[in-house]
Amino acid sequence: MNDESFEQFMAAALPGLLRFGHVLTGDRHRAEELVQSALVKTYRRWGSLRHDQPTAYVRRAMANTYTSWWRSARHETAMPPGFDAAGRAASPYDERDAALRALATLPPRQRAVLVLRYYLDMSEAEIADTLGCSTGTVKSSASRGLRSLRDRLTDPAVEGALS
Predict the structure, then answer these.
(1) Does residue 113 have a pLDDT over 60?
(2) DSSP labels for 95-150?
């Protein structure tokens, strides 16, 4: 594999990787940083990469990098209950926004599993392969993540903090 093949791969995969990064990080700029970091790591190994699905390799690099960032960073806190953003009327984007903010509060593995499963529609086996874990870990992470999201999105006190 050479530089030209990497450029072709990158051109084809970049839009999907950016979408994956945005859902994973919750921020367009951090998503761009995450994709760039993962592509640099992939480029360094491109010549020796013996993987028939380089997009899966980059996604795994992104998930691992995001987990490292999450562990080393201070975690965001939710807005206090009762916070009113100028008393604005509800919009069609409020539910999506609340779901994305609730997703951002999950631990990195749970978040990665849910994004891969429900955003990219990957099977449990594909997720396990992408994240380098067992399918049992994928199942338990998905279950815990969905339960946490359900609790966060149905609890009135938390709803107020996410709104």
Answers:
(1) yes
(2) HHHHHHHHHHTS-HHHHHHHIIIIIS---HHHHHHHHTS-HHHHHHHHHHHHHHHH
